[in-house]
Amino acid sequence: MSAILELRGLEVEIEGLPILRGVDLEVRPGEILGVVGETGAGKSMTARAILDLLPAAATVSFEECTFGGTDFIPPRARQLARGHQIGFVPQRPRGSLNPVFRVGKQIVDTLRRLRGMARTQAREEALNLLRSVRITDPERVYRSYPHELSGGMCQRVCIAIALAGEPELIIADEPTTGLDVTIQAEILKLLGEVIAEHNAAGMLITHDLGVVADVCDRVAVMYAGRVINLGTTVEIYREALHPYANQLVSIAGSLDSGGTPQEIPGRVPNPGDELVACAFAPRCFRAEDDCYGEEPPLVHIGGQMAFCHHPLTSEAVSV
Amino acid sequence: MGSYIARRLIALVPILIGVTMVAFLVSRGLPGDPARLYAGMQASEGEVQAIRVSLGLDKPLYHQYWIYMQGLIQGDLGFSLRTGFPVAEDIRNRLPATVEMVIFALAFALSVALPLGVWAAVRRGKLVDRFSRFISTLGVAIPDFWAALILVMIFFVFLGWAPAPVGRLDLGASPPDGTGFYLLDSVVRGEWGTFTNALGHIILPMISLGFPAIAPITRLTRNATLSVLQSDYIAFGRASGLRGAPLYLKYVLRNSLPGAITMTGLISGYMIGGAVLIERVFSWPGVGLYAYNSLERTDHAAIQGVVLLSAVTYLLVFLVVDLLQSIVDPRVRLK
Ligand SMILES: Nc1ncnc2c1ncn2[C@@H]1O[C@H](COP(=O)(O)OP(=O)(O)OP(=O)(O)O)[C@@H](O)[C@H]1O
Ligand code: SF4
Ligand SMILES: [Mg+2]
Predict the structure, then answer these.
(1) What ipTM did this prediction achieve?
(2) Which ligand is nearest to the CA of A306?
(3) What's the half-sphere exposure (Cβ side, CA atoms, 13 Å) at B301?
C-alpha cells in the first residue's frame, strides 16, 4: 500500500542543537498512525515540520518527503498544504480559537479561504460541519464566542475547522490534554469517526498509550528525535522489537491494571547532550558494547521496523 | 448598551459641575482686566468702572459664578467680549474646523501606525522594525508645531506644492453651505473645486498634527502584536491555512487593538483642546486659535467655554473608548 505521507531522514536543528535526528515515518491511506514517546522526544516538532510551522530559528532538512506522490520538500508545498491537504487539530482548544470573533465567522472565513465559497454557501456548510462533529445545537454554537463554550465544545469546533478544507490527512497534537477525562474519550472517538467518514488518514500525537490502543492502527515510537520503532498497534503492544517501546508499553499496562506508576530508569536526553551510537543505551537493559560504538541497524520483522542491535524477537521475549 | 451609555452620561454631571468651577476660577485668576481691555486704552477710569458694573465684574465671585451657572443650565455660555458673539455660537462656528482636522490627523496616524506596528512585530529586529523605531524617535523629538513649520517651508515655500497656510480654503474662495465640515459639505453638494481646495489645505495640518501620534500608537501596536503572534489561536490559524493580509490585518490586528484604542482616545482628546499651535501656524480658524485669542484678551466667557468643551470632549472620548473596547473584544464587559 503506497503511503499518503512519507518522511525519511527529517532533521531539525534549532540554534545548533539537534532536535530531530532523522525521523522516518509514513502514514497510509485510511489509517490512524499514533506517535508516542516521552516529553521532548520531538513529536510536536515532527508535526510542525510537516506543516512548515517550525520556530523561525529552526533549520530543517529531509532526505525524502512526499504527500500523495507530490514532493513536499519545498517549504512552499508544505505551506500550501495547511488546511487543504492537511487539517490540524490543536492541543489547547480554548486558546486556539480567536477570542474576538464568533465561532461561526471563524469557520466561514476558513471555508471561504480554503474552498472559495460565497458567504451564504459557507454559512450553510459551516452549520453542516458543526453537525458533523456531533454538535446538537449548531445555530447556538455558530453564534457563540469561544469564551462562551466549554473546552470540549471548542475542540469540536477546531475539528470542524480542520475538516473544512476536506483534507486527506488530519494531524492531531495531543488533542485531549486539558480536557475532562470523560470528554477526552468522546473527543477521541469523534476524531476517529470523522477521519473515517471523510476518507482521510490521521496522525495522532499523544503520550497516552491507552489512547493509542483505542484508536490507532499503527504506532510510531519516538526517542530523542527519532522514530525508533514502528509497527501495527497489536505488534507494538504484544511484541515490540525495541526495548524502549517494550518498556513504555509494559509500564502503561501495569498502570492500567492498577500498579504503582513506574518509570524507565534514567533520564531522557536533552537536545545537545552527548549521545552514544544508540541514544537509549544508557537506559537500556539489553545494551552491550556495540550499542555504544555502532549505529543501531534497521531491522524489519513482520510489519515492524526498529533501530536496534538486540531487538526483542519473540524468542528473546520468552526468555 | 443604551442604558449603559445613559448611566455613564448621568455620572458625568457632577464631574462637569466640578469642571465649571475650575474653569471659572482659572479664567478669573488670569492676569489682565477684561473691562479695561474691552473699553480700550484711551477710556477713562470712570468709563471702565461703568463697563465693569455692566459686566457684573464688581459682584462677589460666588455671585458671578451663580449667574454663570444660571445661564449655563439654559445652554447660554455667555458673550465673548472680543468677538461680540455668544460663546456658544463662536464655538459652534469653529468646532467643525478643528474636528475635521483632528479626524484627518487621527486617520493619517492610524493608517500609518497600525500596519507599521504589526509589520514591525512580524519582522522583529529587521529593517522595518528599526525604521519604526526611528519614526518613533523622530515623533518624540520633533514638536508638532515645529514639524508644521518645516512642512510649510518645504512644501509651500520651496516646492510650491502646498497652498499657502492661510486657513481652510484659498483666500477669496467661499466655503460650502452646510455643517461647517468643508470636505463633507462640498462632497454632499458636489462642489468638487471646493473639495480639492479644502483637501489641499488640510494635508499639511493633518500630517503635522498626526505625526507625533504615530510613535506611541505604533509602539503599543507592535508590543501587543508580539504577544498575539505567540498565541495558540494564531498558531492554529496558521495551521489552518491563514496567512498574509487576512492573517495580519484581521486576525492579528484585531487582537492587538485595545492598547491602540485607549492611546488614540487620549490623543484625540488632547488634539481637540491642544491643536493651538498648529492652528496658529496654518491660520486654521478652529477652537484652538479661538482659545489662544481669548486668553490674550482675558475673555472670561470664551475661556470658560473652551475649557468646558475640552473637558466634555475628554469625558465623551473615554466613553467612546470603553464602548469600542467592548465591541473589539467581546470578553470586555460593560458595567
Ligand atoms: N522553540 C523552541 N526552541 C528550541 N527548542 C525547542 C523549541 N520548542 C521545543 N524545543 C525542544 O525540542 C525538543 C522536542 O520538542 P517537542 O515539542 O517536539 O517535544 P514533544 O515530543 O512534542 O514533547 P511533549 O510531549 O512535551 O509535547 C524538546 O527538547 C524541546 O525542548
Ligand atoms: S541498540 Fe542496544 S542500547 Fe539501543 S535499544 Fe537496542 S539493545 Fe538497547
Ligand atoms: Mg508536544
Answers:
(1) 0.92
(2) 2
(3) 27
